[in-house]
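User: Design a sequence. Structure:
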């Protein structure tokens, strides 16, 4: 069953571990993440960016696919289907399509506009039992063609958004999407501590989970992060293994050209990445 992310994140916050959001791109991705979560008895969040949503033929297709897989694969762990970095329009579409969790990313608006639009979604999500993530302070890097400069969120603004009654809050603390550059100074823990002090109990979300050193991720969890988003790392792992298969000429022997065979090593690589991250986040066995 699809569930809101609220309970799993509140439990993670109280238990001092993190729940992974793994972004999905297609059927193989979704199956790999769900099977690994079930194998490790870990709660999981499937993230869908608007770009990936279009690629997978729209939100209703995704809801159908995910619900079908949960049923057919006998998935018993809590699964939230979550819009990642949604626009206001995208959020409305996902709510109508049956997503169990929404991120409205109003971080690029002036704070007053972010508050206005987030407020409009709070009551609807509350009534429908859908978890709502808001964002303050843009996450750096590039995702789906949206480029943002890294910034650290203002704790006072974080409090203003948290007080609206959202379920969880993404706040920039020097994290960026995609690969971190050589000269990345690392996460700003003083910023995280100030945000946590301002927002109290609110579970915090760490975007840009790819390539953050384990000790920094663990410290962030100890300071109030309850959800960590991972996308690029699964993509890199998947593509490297598919490349290896083709470069070794395995598609040229026997029935090696069968797409199920071509993609299989990539799927295993996604599973390995998800296992490694779940171990790092401490959520194994928490379902
Ligand atoms: P990465 O692609 O850097 O792992 O970030 C994922 C993310 O934050 C999705 O919102």
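Assistant: Done.
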């Amino acid at each position: 069953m699809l569930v809101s992310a609220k309970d799993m994140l509140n439990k993670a916050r109280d238990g001092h571990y993190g729940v992974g959001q793994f972004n999905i791109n297609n059927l193989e991705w979704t199956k790999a993440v769900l099977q690994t979560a079930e194998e490790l008895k870990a709660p999981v969040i499937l993230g869908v960016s608007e770009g990936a949503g279009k690629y997978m033929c729209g939100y209703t297709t995704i809801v159908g696919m995910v619900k079908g897989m949960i049923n057919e694969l006998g998935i018993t762990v809590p699964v939230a289907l979550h819009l990642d970095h949604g626009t206001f329009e995208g959020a409305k579409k996902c709510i109508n399509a049956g997503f169990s969790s929404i991120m409205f990313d109003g971080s690029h608006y002036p704070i007053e506009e972010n508050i206005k639009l987030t407020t409009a979604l709070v009551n609807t999500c509350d009534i429908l039992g859908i978890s709502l993530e808001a964002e303050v302070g843009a996450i750096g890097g590039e995702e789906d063609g949206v480029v943002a400069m890294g910034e650290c969120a203002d704790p006072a603004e974080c409090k203003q958004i948290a007080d609206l009654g959202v379920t969880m809050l993404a706040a920039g603390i020097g994290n960026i999407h995609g690969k971190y550059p050589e000269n990345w100074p690392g996460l700003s823990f003083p910023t995280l501590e100030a945000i946590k002090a301002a927002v109290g109990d609110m579970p915090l979300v760490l975007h840009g989970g790819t390539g953050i050193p384990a000790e920094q991720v663990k410290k962030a969890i100890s300071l109030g992060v309850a959800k960590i988003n991972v996308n690029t790392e699964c993509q890199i792992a998947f593509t490297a293994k598919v490349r290896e298969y083709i470069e070794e000429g395995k598609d040229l022997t026997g029935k090696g050209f069968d797409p199920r065979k071509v993609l299989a090593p990539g799927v295993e690589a996604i599973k390995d990445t998800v296992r490694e991250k779940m171990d790092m986040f401490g959520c194994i066995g928490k379902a």
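The chain has a mean pLDDT of 95. Residues 259-281 form the longest helix (23 residues).
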